[in-house]
Amino acid sequence: MTRLQVRAVVEKRGLDLEFEVAAGEVLAVLGPNGAGKSTTLHTIAGLVTLDAGRIQAGDRVLTDVATGVQVPTHARRVGLLLQDSLLFPHLSVLANVAFGARSGRRSGRRDAHESARNWLAEVDATELADRRPRRLSGGQAQRVALARALAADPEVLLLDEPMAGLDVAVAASMRKVLRRVLARGGRCAVLITHDLLDVLTLADRVIVIQDGGIAESGSAAEILTTPRSHFAARFAGVNLIAGSAGSGGALTSAWQLDWHGTPAAELRPGEAAVAVFSPSAVSVYREAPHGSPRNTVAVTIAELDSRGPGIRVRAEEQPDGASGLAADITSEAAAELRLAPGDAVYFSVKAAEVAIHPAR
């Protein structure tokens, strides 16, 4: 059972963060492009040098800038699975996986091949043993790459968008394999992804990296149901407005109006807070509505997207530069309103649909 502890500072890439991954836990790392997600994985793998910090897996120190410790990549017992499988084209599938076994355990040829066959069976790829990589589909190549990584007996498994580029059915099958192998052995895993399904099916906990630091962290359920950062909110498909707590369950924001809702926890006036609500709770009007909705803002439509039987209406950026609010309406309502990008409309949401949380 191996716990991973990371404190990493890479000045030229603006990275400065600290986190832990418990033994047997899968940590999903989310964030916009350029936030520092891949750099984080590369520091753990020893591919990027730290300016300050310490990385430890179990009782083994992999990197310690203060004491000059820097374990070479090949000796870290850290497996890295990328979007590109990077299989050796001149070796058979069996030989590729056996290479992982020999490099990780320093085992002999016979033991390495036995281990390779076991791992190919584990990832449902036994029938591929004699093929060369050029004869594999994308999903088959990723299964083989996973078998090779696991054959090296890593204590930590790093997954950098391994399902990206796979079609829906193949990605679903790959997730099933990953879920099975990650559930055993006590190794921890760090998963970079842009796919909500990866988080739902594989992750125990989530951190959101923004501008090289951790914007929020929590269980997968917490991040997806009550996000506290704009990136996590858009990832989870909900609206988020940042501001400060007012009186009576209100949130004061850059909109220069109070958003009314239900406080999910006790909030002190002036405390940083966020309002969260579903796009399906938002109504769209051409004229300012009258009646029950307490939260109404004037917005300009940025884009319209088809969402199954309905339409998602995305507004331009919020006054503080955050992602624009979204409303999900029926196709009939969109046709009746004759909506188009650039149109000025009103978004309204009832106070009962708005949850107000302390900001992390």
UniProtKB/TrEMBL annotation:
Superkingdom: Bacteria
UniProt keywords, alphabetically: ATP-binding, Cell membrane, Membrane, Molybdenum, Nucleotide-binding, Translocase
Domain Mop per the UniProt entry, residue ranges: 290-358
SMART domains: AAA
ABC transporter domain mapped to chain residues: 4-236
Record's keyword annotation contains Cell membrane: yes
Statement: the UniProt record of this protein carries the keyword GTP-binding: no
GO MF term list: ATP binding
Protein name as catalogued: ATP-binding cassette domain-containing protein
